[in-house]
């Protein structure tokens, strides 16, 4: 019992150290979860004005919404901030470790507690982490002969993430047939709302863009490449620690030793998630194949010698590695995690007396960061168009451009924007030094990243100077 | 494998620059522990070794 609590404590330290501050910033997807939770809490509607939607309309794609709904609780308790937005993922990660300890044993729990992939996904708002926890809990409950509870949890997991949307119904039917507990299928009623919207163009728009048009077998094999599992980070910058893979490099040794103890069940549970993940065109996406890494962690745990000093040494070694990884994550990925948008939100809040244009030519949906950090009332975004809301799950079109009071988020139009007394904000590619000089823009301030390096540049236009310079232009030519 | 071991002694000027930049992220004493030629060389070796294992 003491060892189990110690492992859980270790998991908490690994996940909770500098929680909310590393990764530095809040990603656009996280901001969407947080702001929609805030909007639902205040108005009972999401940012678009839809009452308690079944799928979360997130910038034109329709993602699973259970994470958003659960985030309402921490937003109510702790306010709208990074800790609240990531809290559900942290709790999911801790529950996962606890369930693994009690089902697969303390050694497997130890590996899950320290493995980079599980630590990383518990430190930020990833609905895949919630989905994994519910899926595993549902399977455990089914095996431990709790068919009703298992069906409820597995059904809920389908609302948590896309992979579970496919896996959960298959598992529910499989367990009902295997244990001959068909009465539990009554709880499939939970899935009815999800099935009802699954045939809309919104629900399927994401699926159609994700269907693999390339080499399926090649992509499938990549999920078992030692390079991808133990050395190379996830190709997507926001999905892993810098230069750290799914597991630490040294874990390949216990993995090879543990392979001798592999059984049919472990093999099946390791292979099934990549069968689904490989349908997407992405090369090795850790978040889509997250359930695969649980059986692999179990294999690693079987290769670790059952000696107390080995576990103490590995815990210290992993803690040292994690500290290094967290420092690099904070400093090298702050721009990818949108750290600078908090400062930008602070700037636009204090500059309400002038028109502001924020260039979004190379950015994601900037409005969501402003809405989150400045706690803009959701009513400003919500539509009153009942026809649009009636057809909510079919609006796949989405514009990154937005107008909020004095702020316009859109690309810069040089011909007209320099002739208006306003503030232009962009990165160094959007407004170069020579462009600033040419259009008589004066630098007001810069918006830095976590290392104090400028990311965004804030310029004031001078239309009178620009207009005065215009009659000379034909002569220059 | 020989090539991988050689990488320990063959850090490029870009690698050295990366070490010096990264040192700034850590408290001075700890920076020496994580960001030095030995750990950078080891990471290069690790990448080489695992690329041989790649499918």
In short:
The complex is a heterodimer of chains A (477) and B (55). By secondary structure, chain A is α/β, with parallel strands linked by helices. Chain A is built from 24 helices and eight strands.
Per-chain topology:
The complex is a heterodimer of chains A (477) and B (55).
Chain A: H1 2-16, H2 28-43, E1 55-58, E2 61-64, H3 66-78, H4 82-104, H5 106-114, H6 116-123, H7 127-143, H8 147-158, H9 162-178, H10 192-197, H11 201-210, H12 216-222, H13 226-230, H14 252-258, H15 264-277, H16 293-302, H17 308-332, H18 340-350, E3 356-358, H19 366-373, H20 386-390, E4 402-404, E5 407-409, H21 414-417, E6 423-426, H22 433-438, E7 442-448, E8 454-460, H23 463-469, H24 472-476
Parallel strand pairs in A: 3-5, 3-6
Antiparallel strand pairs in A: 1-2, 4-5, 6-8, 7-8
Helix pairs in contact in A: 1-4, 1-5, 1-6, 2-3, 2-4, 2-19, 3-4, 4-5, 4-6, 4-7, 5-16, 7-8, 7-9, 8-9, 14-16, 15-16, 18-19
Chain B: H1 2-7, H2 13-23, H3 28-34, H4 37-53
